[in-house]
Amino acid sequence: MKIKSLLFVIAILVSQACGTKSGETEGETTDTNAVDETEAVTEEQTSLNTLSEKEKEDGWMLLFDGESSKGWRGYGKDNFPSDWQVVDGTLYMAASGRGEAGSKNGGDIIYDKKFKNFDLKLEWKVSEGGNSGIFYLGQETDDYDFIWKTAPEMQILDNERHPDAKLGKDGNRQAGSLYDIYPANPQNAKPAGGWNQVEIIVYNGTVVHKQNGETVVEYHLWTPKWNEDVAASKFPGLNENWAEVAQEGYIGLQDHGDDVWFRNIKIKEL
């Protein structure tokens, strides 16, 4: 009986040893990281034009759902221009090849709500040689046919090809800049066809432009320095009161006659 019992114990030990794979040690999980990475990629791929639970809790609001033009209309219009399209989860303006607002049923578009203090985030990309812009604190009046005559503009541009990149002063017409006033520094825009992540923060006159994770512009509205810098730009010749930017206004996207795409447009009121 003792010999049989000893043989039985040995058999159990051998069986347990064979159950451990070669190269593994206790507590190892050989493929968990691979599963986690896959889940992370899937989550990233499906997160376009949505808000996370944390963003919802923090008060963020989507301005574009990726499927419709809900909330948007043409500047000076009560409808959404048909030359703007919702394509593959983006707001897309097709090139007219005729310059600013040259399309037959295009033009600048605005979100149909005014904002005062806010944090705005979105992504854009532009075609080769493309030009567009993001407006904020814009006004809609019968006196001005374009929103840029009343609103600061974060420039969108193919810096490598569009001639505007070499105009203005010190690069103040390149991507990320406050157009024709303050240049984006550092200049970190991606080449044509690449997605750029941008952020515009407005709070009681302080304005910040961020581009691809870096602060590239910071300025202060309604100050003597602001009035001086605006006076040196092209805007007083177009609107003598341009420096008197409103405290509250519309957010707009520009039709400059070139292919441009927008997505992940979200805002948090401050």
Can you characterise this structure?
- Residues 1-17 form the signal peptide.
- Residues 25-40 have a biased composition (Acidic residues).
- InterPro entries: AL/BT2_dom (IPR010496).
- Helix content is 16%, strand content 27%.
- With 270 residues, it is of the alpha+beta class.
- The protein has a single domain (75-269), classed as Sandwich (Jelly Rolls), CATH 2.60.120.560.
- Strands 1, 3, 4, 6, 9, 10, 11 and 13 form an 8-stranded antiparallel beta sheet that branches. Strands 2-5-12-7-8 form a 5-stranded antiparallel beta sheet, with no helix packed on it.
- The N and C termini lie far apart (83 Å).
Write the layout of secondary structure elements.
Elements: H1 2-18, H2 32-45, H3 53-57, E1 60-62, E2 72-74, E3 84-87, E4 90-93, E5 109-111, E6 118-126, E7 131-138, E8 153-157, E9 196-203, E10 206-211, E11 214-220, H4 224-231, E12 250-253, E13 260-269
Antiparallel strand pairs: 1-13, 2-5, 3-4, 4-13, 5-12, 6-9, 6-13, 7-8, 7-12, 9-10, 10-11
Low-confidence stretches: 1-45
Please give the largest β-sheet: 8 strands, antiparallel
Mean pLDDT: 86
For the record, give the distance between the C-alpha atoms at the N and C termini, rounded to a whole number: 83 Å
CATH first level: which class? Answer: Mainly Beta
The beta-strand count equals 13
What share of residues is helical?
A: 10-25%
Derived from helix and strand composition plus strand pairing, the structural class reads: alpha+beta
The CATH superfamily is known as: Exo-inulinase, domain 1
Q: How many individual helices?
A: 4
> What is the CATH architecture assignment?
Sandwich
Shape: globular
Q: What gyration radius follows from the Cα positions, in whole Å?
A: 27 Å
Order of helices and strands: HHHEEEEEEEEEEEHEE
Pfam family, one: 3keto-disac_hyd
InterPro entries: AL/BT2_dom
Organism: Fulvivirga imtechensis AK7
Protein name: Putative secreted glycosyl hydrolase
